[in-house]
Write a structure and sequence with these properties.
transmembrane; mainly alpha; membrane; 5% strand; GlsB/YeaQ/YmgE family stress response membrane protein; two-stranded antiparallel sheet; Transgly_assoc; cell membrane
Length: 86
């Protein structure tokens, strides 16, 4: 139970970081950020491997890079042109 909560928190942080770096909002608010972070961790680790520090079983750097890709693609397809306000 505690591990699942930790995975959700780390997924949300990764999703938010990906959204900030890309400069676009992930559709769906916090739920979208959690999904984007978890999906980004999966995409990043599959494309880039499992290098660097890990948190909750996710490699941090590949996860952030994967989240950036996921946020960018999803915001283009679903979110239109909503950009994060400075």
């Amino acid at each position: 139970m505690l591990h699942a909560i930790w995975v959700i928190i780390i997924g949300a942080v990764i999703g938010v970081l990906g959204s900030i770096i890309v400069g676009r909002d992930m559709p769906g608010g916090w739920i979208g950020n959690i999904i984007g972070g978890l999906l980004g961790a999966w995409v990043g680790s599959n494309l880039l491997g499992s290098w660097g520090p890990h948190a909750a079983g996710m490699p941090i750097f590949p996860a952030i890079i994967g989240a950036m890709v996921v946020v960018f693609v999803v915001s283009l397809v679903i979110g239109g042109t909503r950009r994060r306000k400075a």
